[in-house]
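Q: Given only this backbone (192 positions), what sequence would you predict?
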């Protein structure tokens, strides 16, 4: 059951994201899909051949989550873009955010600050299904910092490839553009 890269070309034309930047980003994403499949095949072959005790097997196993999360986080990211980003004060999303953060504004400030942290990774708004509570988390690279069992609700890529072509070092300007293009329906659809 190999994974297939999804087509996000409908995002081309989004305000604040050049075609060059998006095409580069789609190509990077496709690389994670290819490698996830490659790792799964290689690990299955090693299992069949009795090579599970080898350092090669251990290192592939260790690296697998990095490739898989690189694939899946990009899918969440591209799928929560392409909307008009408008905040609807009476919306389900904003109400649930306010219940966890005190106000929508406090959440947005915290999410932007999470995305502005030094380093490469992701800002993720998670929902804990055991409390329905929401929380902003920094994911280092693709694989470090995930909350077990929680559902990603809104994902923002802050690797340099996500913005440098268009914004240079001005990550805050990219975050501004990101907010203008949030697909609220997609985000709300992830809420429990
Ligand atoms: Fe990315």
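A: Predicted residues:
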């Amino acid at each position: 059951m190999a994974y297939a890269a999804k087509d996000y070309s409908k995002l081309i034309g989004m305000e604040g994201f050049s075609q060059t930047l998006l095409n580069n980003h789609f190509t990077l994403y496709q690389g994670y899909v290819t490698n996830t499949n490659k790792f799964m095949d290689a690990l299955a072959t090693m299992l069949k051949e009795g090579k599970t005790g080898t350092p090669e097997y251990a290192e592939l196993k260790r690296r697998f989550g990095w490739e898989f999360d690189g694939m899946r986080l990009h899918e969440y990211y591209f799928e929560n873009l392409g909307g008009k980003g408008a905040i609807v004060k009476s919306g389900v999303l904003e109400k649930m955010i306010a219940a966890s953060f005190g106000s929508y504004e406090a959440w947005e400030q915290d999410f932007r600050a999470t995305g502005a942290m030094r380093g490469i990774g992701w800002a993720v708004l998670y929902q804990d299904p055991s409390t329905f509570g929401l929380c902003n988390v920094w994911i280092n690279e693709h694989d470090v910092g995930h909350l077990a069992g929680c559902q990603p609700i809104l994902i923002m890529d802050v690797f340099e490839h996500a913005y440098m072509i268009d914004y240079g070092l001005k990550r805050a300007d990219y975050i501004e553009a990101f907010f203008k293009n949030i697909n609220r329906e997609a985000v709300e659809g992830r809420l429990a």
